[in-house]
Amino acid sequence: MEQPINILVIEDDDDINQLLCRILKKSDYIPQPAYSGTEALIYLEKQMWDLVLPGKNGEEILAEVTSKGSIPVIIISAKNEQQTKIDNLRSGADDFISKPFDVEEVSAHIDSLLRRYKRSHEPAKINQLTYKDIHIDLDAKSVYVNSSELTLTSREYAILVLLVSSPKKVFSKSNLFESVWHEPFHGDDNTVNVHMSNLRHKLAGANPGEDYIDTVWGMGYRMKS
User: Fold this and answer.
1) Of 187, 188, 189, 210, nearest in space to 200 by CA
2) How many angstroms separate the CA atoms of 151 and 149, rounded?
3) For 3, 10, 99, 180, which has the most beta carbons within 10 A of its beta carbon?
4) Beta strand pairing status for 213-216 and 220-223?
5) CA distances (Å), 134 to each of 143, 163, 185, 193, 225, in order?
6) Rounded to two decimals, what is the model's pTM?
C-alpha cells in the first residue's frame, strides 16, 4: 500500500487556497491549508511534507522550506515577471506557476514534480545475487562469502552465478559445461569435476561451517538448501 502524499498549501486568499486543496484532493493527495507564513512555519515544524505550495510571500517561506531538507516546492504567484521566476528557481523552488492559473495545468505540474522526486529518491537498484551468506555483485563481478571476498577464476565465477541464479534447479554436467564453456558437451566429466571441486574448496575456506553445493547423484548439482 502506497504512503499518502501530504502537501502543504500556503495561500492567504481563502478562495484560492480552497481551490488548490480541491485540486489536490481530486488527485488523491492530502492537502493541509495554511493562511499565513506564521501558520505555515508551525506546520513545517510539526512534520515532513511531500510538497509545499507557497502562494503570497512564497519567497519568504522558500528559505525555511529548503532548510528542512529535500522538499519539492512549487511557487504559485501573481508576480509574473521573468526575473521573479528566475530568482525563485535559483533560490530553491522546483517550479513556478503564475496566477491566474489553469486548474489542469496546476494538477499536471504537481503530478510531474512528484514523479520526478520519487524517481530521483528511489534507492539505486543493486545488480546482485544473494544466497545464504553468498553475495555476488554482477556489475563488479565480485563474490563475497561470510563477508570475505573470494578470488575465483572466470569459469568458477560463471558456475556459481548459474547455480545461485536458480538455486533449486538441478544442473547436469552437460548443462553446466554448455552454459559456462559455450561448447557442446562430449561426456568429459573431468573438466566440470575439477572446476566444481575448486569452487567448493574456496567456498569452504570462506565459511567451513556451511555446505553450499549439493551433489544430486546421477543428475548433477544444485545449491544446498
Assistant:
1) 210
2) 7
3) 10
4) antiparallel
5) 7, 12, 28, 21, 13
6) 0.56
Q: Is the dihedral of CA 139, 145, 146, 151 positive or negative?
A: negative
Enumerate the CATH 3.40.50.2300 domain ranges in the chain, comma separated: 6-121
CATH 1.10.10.10 maps onto the chain at 128-223
- 128-223 maps to CATH 3.30.720.120: no
Strand partners, 97: 76
For cell 554448455, what's the residue? Answer: 178
Q: What is the pLDDT along the chain (225 residues), one digit of tens a residue?
A: 568 899 999 999 999 999 999 999 999 999 999 998 889 989 988 888 999 999 766 667 777 777 766 789 999 888 777 888 888 888 888 999 988 889 999 999 999 999 988 877 666 566 899 999 999 999 999 999 998 999 999 999 999 999 999 999 999 999 999 999 998 888 878 899 999 999 999 999 999 999 999 999 989 999 998
DSSP classification of residue 171: B
